[in-house]
Amino acid sequence: MIFALVGNQNCGKTTLFNQLTGSHQRVGNFPGVTVEQKIGNAIGKKDVSIVDLPGIYSLSPYTSEEIVTRDFLLRQKPDGIINIVDASNIERNLYLTLQLIELQIPMVLALNMMDEVQANNGSIEIERMQKDIGIPVVPISATKKQGLSELLEQAMETAKTQRKPDRIDFCSGAVHRAIHGIAHLIEDHTQKQGIPRRFAATKLIEGDEPMLASLSLSNNEIDTIEHAVHEMETELGTDREAAMADMRYQFIETICKDCVVKARESREYRRSVALDSVLTHKIFGIPVFLGIMFAIFWLTFEWIGAWLSDLLVEGIEALGKLADSGFMAYGLNPAVHSLITDGIFAGVGAVFSFVPFIITLFFFLSLLEDSGYTARVAYVMDKPLRKIGLSGRSFVPLLMGFGCSVPAMMATRTLASVRDRKLTIFLTPFMSCSAKLPVYALFTAAFFENHQALVMFSLYLMGVVLGILSGLIMKKTAFRGIPVAFVMELPNYRFPSAKTVLLLIWHKVKGFVRRVFTLIFLATVVIWFLQSFDMQFNLVDDSAESILAVVGRSVSAIFIPIGLGDWRVATALITGFLAKETVISTLAVLAGTGLTDLGDTLQTFFTPLTAFSFLVFTLLYTPCVAAVATMRRELGSLKGTVLIVLYQTGFAWLVAFCIYQIGSLIL
After folding, report:
1. 111 - beta bridge partners?
2. How far apart are CA 222 and CA 204, in angstroms?
3. What is the reported pLDDT for 594?
4. Span 301-315, mean pLDDT?
5. Whole-number Cα distances in Å, 253 to 187, 241, 247, 276
6. Which segments of 72-172 does DSSP mark as H helices, in order?
7. CB 69 within 8 A of CB 78
8. How far apart are CA 371 and CA 29, in angstroms?
């Protein structure tokens, strides 16, 4: 059995999926977390699978997530639908439910967050609602695991008996005549395509182009449909989409009057309104956000993260010395000895030592996310983003870019406009990803020790500001157009869940550590080999005579105008295309010193000015190969991807050039 889990955004759908399947998919207190379907096996139920589909508000093909959900339901034909709704906001949620009913697939309605409704003196007559709406209704609380076994049992029973919704007709008057007339006209076409007749009729009335194309109607049939729609609009004095929406909401209003006792205004809501008076203020909103982010950087890089990283460095150094002594006593081959101590321990250890910074930073960011503040920042940023041709909805993918560009680019699927998607993907690499964090942490500690948090904050802010500048340029050239309207539900503030916070940190750390011991490990071995052998594959005493030096010198001239002409620095930037962490591993291998002395050794390669130029170039130049591959897939254009990579690298060089040349004149 396969069940489709369908619901509005931010209604607890992914939480329910995790509870039913034992999965650990990411959840968040803001809309748009799920951007593609995920599948898992139900706990304790043999051969029962649940598919978590992206959150949607309707089955109209306006956004990528609506298309994904609709295509799955129409083409894959699951055995049943579990429609999860937010019981505390039932009127809006039932709008999607009525469209799902039209699909005539066995279906169960899961009333989530019933604990919150009851806590605020609200109630829902379950039996009466089941009778009115024509499908089984089960009250649950996904976060507290209440009612989940009953829900799954009811879903399985409904699927086994193939119990389809008892009622699909909730229209009257002019809308009723239009739907039934068109349904009769297209019956043969819907049977051929395997599409429910009423669902197809309502979509044609709404002007659904993909549905019209899929049915292969004749011109006479299309004219007849348009005539029926025109008569309906004339009689009702409204347009086709508004007529369908009014029909559904009138039925929803009848159900709510009959079955729902509304909850009083909750304490969480009153608290959210009070906090929003400051946090979403039109003047103070952005300064408050910047202040919060600066505090997070200060705690991460000058206090908690720095202290934990120092402890880890000491542990790695001790382990390296122990291994070195053991190899000496054993009489290990000098080349292998050098590979392990000077290559693997130096390169991999240098990157791994920054895990505490990753943990600390994402601990604070996950608190903001799970509390509901992230959604507020998207609202606050709507007006500034419109200046560059985007809406506040693009803020969520851009914010995800501070973690990793790959899921951030995938998250643009939640955007309704193709133009908005492409422009957001273009801007995502300007949001400094966590892979660059070790580079920043190492260089700010080595060259800007007394202002580490300030320099770190300025780098992140510079990425945003220069992204905005690039957006303004692209708005007038490659991505002309008007951003779509921004509508976003603001969830209530809540105390962050320890499980959710730990899960988010675990995902970030797991991905970072996996890269360290796979890609970074392999890159470190290759770099050690290239800097240990010359072109005739003889071991060299001086890395300046190595293969790597030859390669580095061949491209180092490009970096001389930005103050980075040393072949070792040029080589590190080139390897950064594989993964930004390899910049650190490359420098560590080439420096040939322990982790505690790496910062001091870098001062022989850089001055504070060239170090800052290096940081800025690292911030802005092309993202890693995984991000570029994702960009290619999401844009669907190799040429567009290449042009973006070239633009970003050229833009990075230009900004670093200005900083270095102006800095040289001043200093």
Report:
1. 85, 139
2. 9
3. 63
4. 84
5. 30, 18, 10, 30
6. 90-101, 114-119, 126-133, 148-160
7. no
8. 7
Q: Which residue has better confidence, 575 or 27? A: 575
pLDDT tens profile 291-307: 998 898 888 877 888 78
How large is the average pLDDT for residues 599-619?
90
Residue 614 pLDDT > 70: yes
- What secondary structure does DSSP assign to 551-578, as a single string? HHHHHHGGGGGGT---HHHHHHHHHTTT
Nearest in space to 426 (alpha carbons), one of 390, 380, 392, 383: 390
Helix (H) / strand (E) element for 368: namely: helix 355-371
Hey, what are 286's tokens?
């952005």
Predicted pLDDT at 158: 95
Pairing of strands 80-86, 107-112: parallel
Return the pLDDT at 552: 86
Distance CA 391, CA 381 (A): 8
Mean pLDDT of all residues in 61-81: 84
Question: Which ranges of 448-497 would DSSP assign to H, the alpha helix?
Answer: 452-475
Rounded Cα–Cα distance for residues 286 and 467 (Å)? 17
Nearest to 103, CA basis, from 20, 40, 168: 168
- The Cα-based distances of 52 to 6, 16, 27, 82, 192 in angstroms read 7, 9, 12, 10, 28
149 three-class SS: helix
Q: Please report where in the chains the tokens 């505390």 appear, as a residue.
A: 88
Which H or E element spans position 2?
A: strand 2-7
Question: What pLDDT does residue 486 have?
Answer: 64
Distances (CA, A) of 586 to 15, 334, 579: 41, 21, 11
Residue 84 has phi, psi (to 5 degrees) of -95, 130
Strand, coil or helix: 122: coil
Phi, psi for 331 (deg, rounded to 5): 80, 35
Any idea which residue has 């273009």 for tokens?
A: 426
User: In whole angstroms, what is the distance from residue 259 CA to residue 52 CA?
Assistant: 28
Residue 135 pLDDT = 95
* Torsion on CA atoms 542, 547, 549, 552, rounded to nearest 10: -170
Contacts of 639 (CB under 8 A, 6+ apart): none
More confident residue, 290 or 105: 105
Spell out the alpha helix ranges (H) of 476-520: 498-515
Is the dihedral angle over the CA atoms 58, 59, 62, 63 positive or is it negative? positive
pLDDT at 435 exceeding the cut of 60: yes
Amino acid occupying residue 287: P
Confidence of residue 124 (pLDDT cuts 50, 70, 90): very high
Q: Under a CB-based contact definition with an 8 Å cutoff, are residues 134 and 2 in contact?
A: no
pLDDT computed for residue 14 by the predictor: 82
pLDDT at 139: 95
Rounded to an integer, what distance in angstroms lies between the CA atom of residue 247 and that of residue 252?
9
Number of H helices, E strands in the chain: 34, 8
Which amino acid is it at 624? C
**Section 487-516 average pLDDT:** 80
Q: Which among 357-361, 485-489, 553-557, 660-664 has the top mean pLDDT?
A: 660-664
Largest CA distance in the chain: 95
Predicted local distance difference test score (pLDDT) of residue 483: 66
Q: In Å, how far from its chain's centre is CA 441?
A: 24
SS3 (DSSP) at 236? helix
